[in-house]
Automatic annotation (TrEMBL):
Coiled coil: none annotated. Pfam families: ArsC (PF03960). Signal peptide: none annotated. Transmembrane segments: none annotated. InterPro entries: Arsenate_reductase-like, Thioredoxin-like_sf. Belongs to the ArsC family. It comes from the Bacteria. PANTHER family: ARSENATE REDUCTASE. It comes from Nocardioides humilatus. This is Arsenate reductase. Gene3D superfamilies: Glutaredoxin.
Length: 118
């Protein structure tokens, strides 16, 4: 199991606590220090069955001085590149279980889903 997190994020700390309470082994990836590649983002999005803009922290774009591309297939690659170079735009935490189940673990039900799978 792997969790992409920002240790300053309360949702990430809650998810880690839930994983610990369940006795799960996991690898922590501080994705702000080691941003995901475009290929890694593609893999996570395929597992989530979502588009890049679905896991983007769009409200943070303005704080970062970024203009976001249109939310359409034509601009999908731009989203991926932007999220790879500006990982603060990625929702957190993202947790992937050993069976491939992947969630954005912002609530207890999502974290429970990946705990049950992994």
């Amino acid at each position: 199991m792997e969790i992409w997190l920002n240790p300053a994020c309360s949702k990430c700390r809650t998810a880690v606590s839930e994983l610990d309470a369940a006795g799960k082994d996991y690898v922590v990836r501080r994705y702000l220090d080691t941003p995901p590649t475009v290929a890694e983002l593609e893999d996570v999005l395929a597992r989530l069955a979502l588009e890049p803009w679905d896991i983007a922290r769009t409200a943070d774009a303005g704080k970062l001085g970024l203009a976001l591309p249109a939310k359409d297939e034509e601009h999908r690659g731009e989203w991926l590149e932007l999220m790879s170079t500006e990982p603060k735009l990625i929702q957190r935490p993202i947790i992937t279980a050993s069976d491939g189940t992947t969630v954005v673990g912002r609530d207890a039900a999502s974290v429970a889903k990946v705990i049950d799978a992994g």
